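Field guide to reading this record: the first block holds the primary sequence, the second block holds the structure written as discrete tokens, and the final block holds curator observations. Each block starts with its own label. This record concerns THUMP domain-containing protein, catalogued under organism Coilia grayii.

BLOCK 1 — SEQUENCE
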Amino acid sequence: MSTFSESCGENLCPEEENTSSANEGRDLTVTIGATVPTGFEPTAAEEVRQKIGADARISKDRGRIYFQIATDKLALVHHLKSVDNLFVIVQEFENYEFKDSKEDVMSDFQQLAPQLPWSDALEVWRMNNSLKKRRGRRRGGNSSKPKPGKGEDAPVPATEEGDAADLIPAEKGQSDAPQAEEGEGDQAGNLEKEAAEDEANKTLKFRVTCNRAGDKHCFTSNDAARDFGGAVQEFFQWKADMTKFDVEVLLNIHYSEVVVGIALTEESLHRRNITHFGPTTLRSTLAYGMLSLCNPQVSDVIIDPMCGTGAIPVEGSIEWQHSFFIAGDNNDMAVSRTVNNVNHIQKRSQDAGSAPLSVDTVQWDLCHLPMRTSSVDIIVTDMPFGKRMGSRKKNWDLYPSCLREMARVCRPGTGKAVLLTQDKKCFSKAISRMGGLWRRVHTVWVNVGGLVAGVYVLKRTGSVYGTTPEDVRPPQEAPNSGKDEQ
Ligand SMILES: C[S@@+](CC[C@H](N)C(=O)[O-])C[C@H]1O[C@@H](n2cnc3c(N)ncnc32)[C@H](O)[C@@H]1O
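BLOCK 2 — STRUCTURE
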């Protein structure tokens, strides 16, 4: 283990760490890591290019992208729609050489902690905290979002082979300094100063979260988190706290790649726009990815005919404000959840002085849509998988009927559909019989709650509805009629 003075090279000495708030405002260039829904890494990279002007690198560890920013762009990073969690990189090792015995690997990890270049990443972490506090005050109080309910997304400090995008860091406890209300003038300024001083003087609480994937490691993620964490604690003299932590240090190990980072988000950003959750609410980030695949244009009519809680139209109407969205479902509870979610975002946009969002909610049966033929530009929906929602047996009738009705309302030649399902066999069979109406463009494979699902991108053929053999509704098909076909 290096001595205190040895480790102060380009690293941050514990003393410096307490006083470096004086450096705030210094422009740094750092690498940001983001977890994104698996399969949608290219969509996320494109969003980063468009909104931040940075070229993102897609990690070989699926579900992650990395990009460099100057710190004046830090606030923009939090507005990305395709990212679940954000972190700033302390150091990356592309080809880390793990020793053969667990003891040796752990000893290397212990020696690594004091040698890492922590200072820039910690400064970005601090800037990020100030941003969050400012944003919290603008919103009129506490910046923290509602905590996830019991049984949802519990804190997972160490994961093996987990889906990166599904790792949702725990909420922090009461670590944020008290928030001043807007309009309190000097008093607010004093409070801010006091809070900053308190922050600088207090002993930080931290935890290390290790994500590990790879079958050749002789240690577990818990081993790595514990031993690396011990060395971090010794170096910074921080206090370990698994639940009420200020700093979350990330140790991501993917085969021979090791990345050490500091988390910039407390809870996954995928929850940002939904207040009324249902049994199968889609992550906002996945909804954004599906919508991006069809590249919505000004004045496009976009429907989600099986909207559930409305994650897709809610996300779409916020991002593509010049398109028009219709959310529909046949279930009254789903419709009322969507109405509540839409009202919530309408209120938020009204409070921000923005124009109302173009989104309507309807109760309907997708197999008999109350819409004119060829009146819709884009259909984006998340179909019942037949597991938590509906049944596999019912899908054999539902999928062909809904593909036919979607083809009726969708504009021939230009219309598109992006459909998510995990019932791949049933979907493949149904779409193979609709060649005259739909052309399959490509499929993105995604992980939805641990299940591999397909996001099918379809293009409406130029055939006028009513002129192809596929328009005819066949007599009821037997549920197992597709056994011979994948
Ligand atoms: C997988 S869920 C959609 C979840 C949704 N994306 C969300 O974020 O909550 C599928 C939805 O399809 C609806 N559904 C099933 N059959 C339908 C039909 N014939 N017409 C309209 N909606 C239907 C169900 O009520 C359910 O809400």
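BLOCK 3 — OBSERVATIONS
Residues 1-23, 141-156, 161-185, 477-486 have pLDDT under 50 and may be disordered.
The chain has twelve helices and 16 strands.
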